[in-house]
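Task: encode each sequence below as structure tokens.

Item 1
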Amino acid sequence: MAHPIDVHVGRRLRQRRRLLGLTQEKLAQAVDIRFQQIQKYESGSNRISASRLWSLAKALDVSITYFFEGMNGSEPKLDFDLRAEYGFAEAPAEGLLDEKETMDLVRYYYQLGEEPRRRLLDLARALSES
């Protein structure tokens, strides 16, 4: 069974890769490994060595600490309960950002200019209230 920290690091790897629009194959080529190894890292089934983490951080243009963000000094909790008082918007980012559709939306959102982004945000807010 995968260790929770390995799962967390793998999720952060997947999130960043998707945010940049990279395939597993492209990332694997950048760090000179096979794409299957990227799959194993992202699932947490294989641990990432320090030297490989360094290479991945460089390829993804992040610091090594990026992979550990959200852990708050303890092992990440892998399951959560959505309390009705908070609703869906309070779900952990790790679950939301695991979806390819969410990452595509974020990527395209930031490609918009400031005014269209503000209007899109206003539209999303209005739609969620109805």
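Item 2
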Amino acid sequence: MTETDLVVKVVEAIANADGVDQEELDPLYTYIDPGMLEGLSGREKGEWSFTFQYADHQVTITQGEQIFVDGELYTSGKVTW
């Protein structure tokens, strides 16, 4: 996944969890520097996860670039409930 893809996927995951279009969300930079997320893309050394708060959601990104919103895995355009 490219740097920009990871940021886009995070926004998609949050929008999906809220059941809204991405354009209806507050900008991601209101809660976290998108550059920080871009820096995570492609990191392969060791196992890691990164968690941050977006509005009332807890978002976690793992070393395998899996995205969890409130503990639920986001995959292919949807959060798996």
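Check on item 2: The mean pLDDT is 86. Residues 10 and 76 are 12 Å apart (CA to CA).
End of task.
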